[in-house]
Design a protein that fits this description.
heterodimer, A: about 425 residues, alpha/beta, 8-stranded mixed β-sheet, about 30% helix, B: 8-stranded mixed β-sheet, 13 helices, 16 strands
Chain lengths: ~425, ~400
Amino acid sequence: MQITRRRLLAAAGAAPLAAAPARPKIAALATIYHRYAHAQHIVDRFLDGYGWNNTHYRPGVDLVSLYVDQVGENDLSRERAARHPGMKIYPTIAEALTLGTGKLAVDGVLLIGEHGRYPRNEKGQRQYPRYEFFQQIVKVFRESGRVVPVWNDKHLSWNWEWAREMYDTARSMGFPFMGGSSLPVTWRTPQVEMPPGVRVREAMCVCYGGVDSYDFHGLETIQCMVERRRGGETGVKWLQAWRGEKFWEAYRAGAWPRDLMEAALSRSHTLVPAREGFNHIFPTEADMRRLVKNPVAYRYEHNDGLLCTMLLLPGLLRDFNFAARIDGRAEPFSTQMYLPMPDGRTTLANFFSPLVYHAEQMFLTGKPSYPVERTLLTTGLTAAGVESLFRNQEHLDTPHLAGIRYRPTRESTFWRS
Amino acid sequence: MPKRIAVITTVYRYLSHAQHMADRFLVGYPHKGRWHKPEVQIVSLWVDQKPEGDLSRARAEEFGFQVYPTIAEALRCGGSKLAVDGVLLIGEHGKYPRNEKGQVLYPRHEFFRQIVEVFEQDGRAVPVYNDKHLSWSFEKALWMVEASRRLRFPLLAGSSLPVTWRLPDLELPLGCQIEEALMVGVGGSDAMDYHALEAMQCMVERRRGGETGVAAVQLLDGDAVWKTGEEGRWSKRLLTAALSRSDTPMGFSHQDSRPQDLVASGELRRLVKRPAAYFIEYKDGLRATLLMLSGAVRDFNFAARVKGMGVVSNQFLLTPEPNVTYSACLMAQVEEMFVTGRAPYPAERTLLVSGVLESCLTSRLEDHRRIETPQLDVRYQAPRVSRHARE
């Protein structure tokens, strides 16, 4: 049966999106708000402004309401509300969206479900309530007969079915929906972009961190580059994950290309020296085995044959490095997605600045700066990686990811200005 | 055959300049997305000081080169004639006295003189790289540059700032019209102010007409810095632009990671206990200011007003220890000179910055008076491409 968008909207009981007002009102929904929590980085930039385009930039939207799920001793939301009286804290998501009026009263929603104490399931996934928050947002939309753009931090949900439902709901109700992490939009060293329409044979990200966390960032690093290949994104057929001893067996068996790994490691600014007295030395396999305590690899194939590998090598480095084999170039094409990280290196996590800027642009224009299908795919890849590891590092077919096809934006959206 | 290189240095300890620079020719370094195996080979080393933690002997044993007791012997590899194809002169770190201007008296000029003597005696000269400024004294620095001209050997000098990554990747167009420039630096004198001045110089040297030299300088510190800002002697707009590139504002940002507009909020004055302003009046009329703002931020940021472009700015990315990958960017330039026999950018940049710094410190010593600098008649053309890390 053919379902038109209009009929879906009618079925959902929502009116099509109206033009945004001059200064849109924004609600932020956060799991927790403390120093270095994502909500702090994101909401603070709307409240206090941030360095952007040669000045201290003040966003063209008003963040008027905030809901915080968990308020601990280190909470900053109360201090922020006191300092910014234009922003009120509400006890429920519905009230934050309706500003207590009973009807949707904001022009955009930030959904920041990262950090906070939430249980882990048997697969090790932290059950951040992004889907639950989203459902409450949609409930207000339905009851109000109006929809507004929603911006979702990081992957849509730890649960693939829920993520897919979020995506489908946004489409059927017709509201702009955008998500993902900072990696696709942050600085690059060097400042290079994947040539558009190029044929990509192999791509890799070498990064750090743990499963169901930084793996998502690594997958986003790869996806924002490979989506620019000839034919655009075609979906993913299968995924295989390895960890621990099986990781090293796969490494030795040549399961992923060594030259790309070397290229990616050569983009790092944070290689842990393998030998005392040397500040920067390329690690041997024995060095890596000694330094990396929990190596993880996700390897997967796209429908058009592109093979990708995401390596988590905690203990060896602390940055996100990309390398690819592309046609027309003998050497790997590589760069680092540079995150100025407040882990002692900086005081500000300024990689949130381009993320916040793009969210603001969606609130102002009603158009996502880049396709949410990217986030849907990387959400599915993250879940598939977790699943493969859970099923004893099994090769998994991913028919549910095989249909995710999309085209990238023509313009680059990473930070260059 | 790889080029044979002698290393002449003050001290070879973990994270000293000699270690993280010379080691790159021993164990390779990242370059253009590969772990590059250098086309040069270190064959000899001379080190002035061997304090606890000295690595020179261990490196010599592991990598099969000799540590010689004199500079001349290192250059001749124990023989009677110059036996190397290039010299890496790294006179940074080690214990040396300071003079009344606060300059550490690193013996770069003295080492360089000995190198030149060997070149003269043996009737052959090879490329020399000099780390950081040429000398604490402009007169000595000028002698070094003139010696390289007289004996016709390539000379490359300076620090990593001009060649490191820039956020964003800002390259001022050659021949642009710069209306005003401002640099924010941090750290002590005369190490970190040198880096900041050199970073600014590698940007402004691209202006129309090329570099023409400096007519006068002045160094102010304390409240006078803020007062000159109020008077418009430096641009608050450019300071805001430069600080907008910082990843390390202190105060509230350090406390709870909130972004801040340090200029508009007035927090800057609270955070910086000992500000200093280095005013540079170029011969062609360009005014440039270095503000040393320790306490406000911890990174190096530049801003300029350029005709037709408006305000532009960038951070010079100093990547973290211990990798300090920016020194790999610099050693790639040095290796290129050793291999091709051509310096990728002019040592006159370093010469001018050496002189500007010395005169600024003289101004500080002499009651912050404005000092005319006829000796800084250093003219040169910027390289067509600036050679910073961008591929």
